[in-house]
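User: Can you predict the 3D structure for this chain?
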Amino acid sequence: MIIVIGYGNTLRGDDGVGVEIIQKLKKMNLQKHIKIINGGISGIDVLMDIGEFEKLIIIDSIISGGKEGALYRITPPALPEVEEGVLSTHAPSWISFLRSNVESSGKGYWSNVIFYGIEIRNTMIGTELSSKIARKMPDYINSILKELQ
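Assistant: Here is the predicted structure, written as structure tokens:
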């Protein structure tokens, strides 16, 4: 099973980009072994219920000081080492949960996790994505679809 989780707050502008991507993926005719999950702002709640997976892809907005709209693909071994605040604007975060699972599941657990972070600036109240993020949406979707092949 390949699981794709998109996180974000759709009421805070670009912070909802992970959820927007998930909503678009759900409308596509993807293979049956791919499970698409809207994580919203739930953080670890969704992760606690996913069970075993062949691959876990997490999509979330980040604010790391990089170029707005940039898409980062972070994989092991870098994933466990990345600073908490860089990976998620939500608390409690999924990165904390995954770190705690490394202790019980071993380092191999990380080899199945891929994080896609989208650099954002706009977290003001509102349901619209900024034009910069909205224009790049097809690129974000294509990157995720390539990952699913």
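Residues 2-148 form a domain with the Rossmann fold fold (CATH 3.40.50.1450). The longest helix spans residues 131-148.
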